[in-house]
């Protein structure tokens, strides 16, 4: 059962989704720029829960030669940095709506020429590239109502190269609702739910080939 602050948090973002996609994107960008006025506002680089979630996610990735990877909602690039260490030969793109967050992400991986960052909104950005691995964590609930979740799920599917893998990680049991829209876009290859933690989460894997 979500806490009262979490319920109010989700209600706020559902209200924002009553706006046009462009207007919603502008407000989300301002919201996250405000949060990132100070470094690492959610302690993604230091919290043991976040570190365990990153390790669990990497553990469940199908063993494939990922040459092109994108992380949607990369924030300050903590997991992007972990992906770069796990796949040193891959070209990795981190995407976020906050330029403040991206500036710190670039500093984090400044010595790795294979990693780049760009500011983009999953609802309005139409990519001209495709990726072997698409990663989306703790992002979809910011998009609000059904039509925006459906649109974002379609956009995530469009990022995949043939035979590519999409990994979505969100709080459980909310992930059931959020990942439902991905289920309508791509075959689900597997899921792992972690409940032995103060904030349960689910890792769902999608794609067009076997795990």
From TrEMBL:
Keyword set, alphabetical order: Methyltransferase, Transferase
Keyword Hydrolase part of the UniProt annotation: no
GO biological process: methylation; oligosaccharide biosynthetic process
Pfam families: NodS
Protein name: Methyltransferase domain-containing protein
Molecular functions (GO terms): S-adenosylmethionine-dependent methyltransferase activity
Biological source species: Nonomuraea turkmeniaca
Gene3D superfamilies given in the database record: Vaccinia Virus protein VP39 (3.40.50.150)
Source domain of life: Bacteria
CDD domains: AdoMet_MTases
InterPro entries to which the protein is assigned, alphabetical: SAM-dependent_MTases_sf, SAM-MeTfrase_NodS-like
Lineage: Bacteria, Bacillati, Actinomycetota, Actinomycetes, Streptosporangiales
